[in-house]
Amino acid sequence: MNYDYQWPDASFKLDQLNKKSKAGSRVASIESFFEKRFNKKCLLFPSARSAMMTVLSYKNVNRSHIAFVPKWTSHCVWGTVARFANPTCINDKIVNYSMRVNKWGYSFNTEFETDQVINSSVDSLFTDSKLLLNGSNFELISLPKILGTVSGGIVCFDDKNFHDYVIRARNMTSDYISSHQFKSKLAQVRGEPELLPWDSIEYLNLKTQPDENRHIASLLDNYKLAEELISERMNKLKNLLNLEDLKIQDGRLPCLVPVKEEFLTDTSSFMRRNFNFSLENEIDKFEPIYLLPVHIGISETEFNEFCSFIK
Predict the structure, then answer these.
(1) Angle between the 222-238 and 300-307 helix axes, to the nearest 10 degrees?
(2) Which of 15, 63, 97, 261 counts the highest number of beta carbons within 10 A?
């Protein structure tokens, strides 16, 4: 298990490389899988970060705008927003847009109007399609965070012009950049540091590679597996912990449970982070917590070991 166990480890079989496949048909089948599951229009991107950049570009967000990003949000969100707008974690009347970060699969409320909000639900596992696009026209999902893939992001959207915008931009994406980015992500999984700076070109790439598409398609069954496994583990935790503060939505499964220190006998095996129990996106009420993972990257033995530290 990785030290950073917030999400599943990526897995990639070398025998998936260099097999003949039609990239376009793979993309269509992956997008169709999520459209049927979510009952929403969906598009595939190389990553959720690439997807976020495309949405920001489509909405003409620029350096004249100020965008709210919650405190303690990951560097990838801050870095992505900073390429287009001026990010801030202080909410006031001059803010133009808000990144609604549904952290670790928990739903947060927002004060902003639908056209000002982008829903970042990168590690939410949706089991009810009605929860998608709640208060926004765009919902971002990261496939590595829910399926354990090397790459891939999905945008669910409710905007009649977005599809054609993306297809035009995708067709103009350089094959060299697309190929280099995927190879760099594979290098990251393999621990080859000389190829790690893939994020410097990610904002230029909207296209996935044939090997990449084959890899993602091979792990789509993990969605159902994750749904069953996380549901089972959350039911167990409900008997061990008081989860009422988390206001867990029926139809959205988390990747982990934030636990306060007072409920644990020992914290040495846990990652320490911060969580906003107010569940209000623009209100700063973060508290230090410890992470108890429930996703598919954690074995049953590891999960039970984490649970053994609950008082």
Answers:
(1) 20
(2) 97
